[in-house]
Write a structure and sequence with these properties.
Layout lengths: L2 H30 L9 E6 L2 E7 L5 E4 L2 E2 L2 E6 L13 E4 L7 E2 L12 E3 L6 E2 L12 E3 L6 E2 L12 E3 L16 E3 L6 E2 L12 E4 L5 E2 L12 E4 L7 E2 L24 E2 L13 E4 L5 E2 L12 E4 L21 E2 L7 E2 L16 E3 L5 E2 L18 E3 L6 E5 L3 E3 L5 E2 L1 E6 L4 E7 L5 E2 L3 E2 L7 E2 L2 E3 L13 E2 L11 E4 L5 E2 L12 E6 L20 E7 L4 H11 L3 E7 L2
Parallel strand pairs: 2-5, 3-6, 5-7, 6-8, 8-10, 9-11, 10-12, 11-14, 13-15, 14-16, 15-17, 16-18, 18-19, 19-21, 20-22, 22-23, 24-26, 25-27, 32-37, 36-38, 37-39, 38-40, 40-41, 41-42
Antiparallel strand pairs: 1-2, 4-5, 28-31, 29-30, 29-33, 31-32, 34-35
Length: about 550
């Protein structure tokens, strides 16, 4: 073989190798969609004949995603597929007929100009963050095939109002569709966490029968959200933490929210609803109610429990600061009234007595810190069922009003043997006093507002050893003389008691727990303490005792007690 022949063979070999390499490159480009022509401006990747839309470079503001691109069925839209046109595209209609069509997470995230979307039949899920931040999005068609609306799916969609399962609906005929309501698809099983958080234009929603779960913060801070309706016998079982917190959800005698299969209500699920939510009914199926579930629901007045409910306790602060709550009767199944359950419920004793049921075994601290300094609201009493063996009422010596010749009753909620005080109740207010005057005949003559531990017969109470936290929250007394038998005090005894200034303590025991008598919750003690110390105590014992109280101002002096 001569040299010329060798050169020809080498050139041909190189050419063949180049063609093979080019073929490989072409194959790779075709398989990734990079060589696809921009049919309508779409780029895509392929898996066989299944196409995923990965980008759009067209000029249309009303985009139609076709059923097929270059003969390949559209089965998916990738994350940020339209991000380069996020500020231009106003509507998207997806025409695919694939029964396996899906959206990737954050597929349309932050498309700030997007106003309307039509999703295709066969879609099973709206994934996490799919439309998050689409602040102009108002209308969306969601097919009934969707079973999950994922986490943050519509987060911060501040214009969102309307959804229906198809485009061809009527808003004029007898069975018209309200374009201000978000109709959940009939196959929906779950609404994910934060799905509609900050959807501030969302006015209402209709829940389908199949819906089982509303996730944490699902409608949190949807501040216009008022109307919630649902199919008959809706299967909703679980409402997550803060699911409807800071909405304007409506529930009243004419439009009562009553979920027949509800088992779980999360922490703060209905907290901070300040209007329209006046009544709520717990179904017989309820098993768990979270902490602060209805906290600061300042319009809630009436709470019902369905017959047959087996609920044994609820979360701490469940009705805290529900200032209009006046009608509630806990079911017999309740074994524990949790801490701060009715704290700040100033109207709790407005319509009727509150009864501690026969099966109640535990009462948390501050459960009845109901601020009794307003006689208009605190005109009834706390009572205890005759069959309850754990708690009792200790009736106190009557008090008087400065503008009345009548006397009025008040008392203490205690344990069965009156050794532990849980709460004070009564209609003692700024016009009340304990039947006598001090500094009689002087220029400073005034009604005696010093609370004394005297029973209804006028005898000093000597059984009390412990006073629980918040026991005298919101009282109108100016000062108090504690019995010498008391050795344990809880925190914040006089929380929010604006008129209270001085606690007189007479004690010969030195086993007190460290405590504070704060008026406020911010840790600023504002109550003076005057200690009348037994002459039997040594200086060292007195010093140690004063230190243990950790109060702001302490005055001590010896006295024969």
């Amino acid at each position: 073989m001569n040299n010329k022949t060798k050169q020809i063979i080498v050139v041909v070999s190189v050419f063949v190798i180049a063609l093979a390499s080019l073929g490989t490159v072409i194959g790779l480009l075709v398989s990734t969609g990079r060589l696809s022509e921009y049919s309508g401006g779409f780029s895509y990747t392929l898996s066989g004949t299944r196409a995923t839309i990965t980008g759009y470079d067209g000029d249309d503001t009303d985009v139609v995603v076709p059923d097929k691109v270059r003969g390949n069925r559209v089965v998916s839209i990738a994350k940020d597929a339209f991000s380069t046109k996020a500020g231009n595209i106003k509507t998207i209609t997806i025409k695919t007929t694939s029964t396996a069509f899906s959206l990737e997470s954050e597929a349309f995230k932050d498309m700030t100009a997007l106003e309307e979307v039509v999703l295709p039949l066969g879609l099973k899920e709206i994934p996490a963050g799919a439309f998050s931040g689409c602040k102009a999005l108002r209308d969306i068609v969601i097919p009934d095939s969707v079973t999950l609306i994922g986490e943050k799916a519509f987060y911060n969609c501040s214009s969102l109002k309307f959804s229906f399962s198809r485009e061809n609906y009527s808003d004029e005929e007898e069975n018209s569709i309200d374009k201000e309501i978000f109709y959940m698809p009939s196959g929906l099983l779950e609404i994910g966490a934060n799905a509609f958080e900050n959807c501030t234009a969302l006015i209402g929603a209709h829940f389908n029968k199949a819906l089982e779960k509303v996730g944490d913060e699902a409608f949190y801070r949807a501040t216009a959200f008022t109307e919630l309706t649902f199919d008959e016998d809706c299967e909703l079982a679980s409402i997550g933490n803060s699911a409807f917190q800071s909405t304007r959800l409506r529930s009243n005698a004419n439009e009562l929210l009553e979920f027949p299969h509800l088992t779980t209500i999360g922490d703060k699920a209905f907290a901070d609803i300040t209007t329209n939510f006046t009544q709520f009914k717990f179904p017989a199926t309820i098993k768990s109610v979270g902490a602060n579930a209805f906290m600061n629901n300042t319009s809630l007045a009436t709470v019902h429990f369905a017959e047959g409910v087996e609920l044994e306790t609820m979360g701490e602060g469940v009705f805290q600061d529900c200032t209009y709550l006046s009608t509630i009767e806990l079911p017999e199944s309740i074994k524990e009234i949790p801490a701060k359950a009715f704290m700040g419920c100033t109207r709790l004793l407005y319509n009727s007595d509150f009864k501690i049921g026969k099966n109640v075994e535990k009462i948390g601290e501050g459960a009845f810190a109901i601020y009794t300094n307003n006689a208009t609201y605190s005109r009834r009493a706390i009572t205890v069922d005759n069959e309850n063996q754990n708690f009792a009422i200790l009736t106190l010596q009557n008090f008087s009003k400065t503008n009345s010749s009548s006397s009025y009753e008040h008392g203490l909620l205690t344990n069965a043997d009156h050794t532990v005080v849980y709460a004070y109740f009564g209609s003692y207010d700024k016009t009340s006093y304990f039947g006598s005057k001090i500094n009689v005949g002087s220029d400073e003559e005034k009604a005696d507002k010093r609370f004394k531990f005297y029973n209804e017969g006028g005898n000093q109470i000597t059984s009390i050893n412990e006073i629980k936290s918040y026991a005298f929250a919101g009282v109108a007394f100016e000062d108090m003389r504690l019995p010498k038998t008391v050795t344990v005090l809880g925190e914040y005894l006089f929380y929010e008691s604006d008129d209270f200034s001085t606690a007189y303590i007479e004690s010969i025991k030195w086993t007190w727990q460290k405590t504070t008598f704060n008026k406020e919750s911010d840790g600023s003690p504002e109550v003076e303490i005057l200690i009348l110390v037994s002459t039997e105590a040594t200086d060292s014992e007195i010093s140690d005792f004063i230190s243990s109280l950790a109060a702001d101002e302490i005055y001590s002096g010896r006295a024969n007690l």
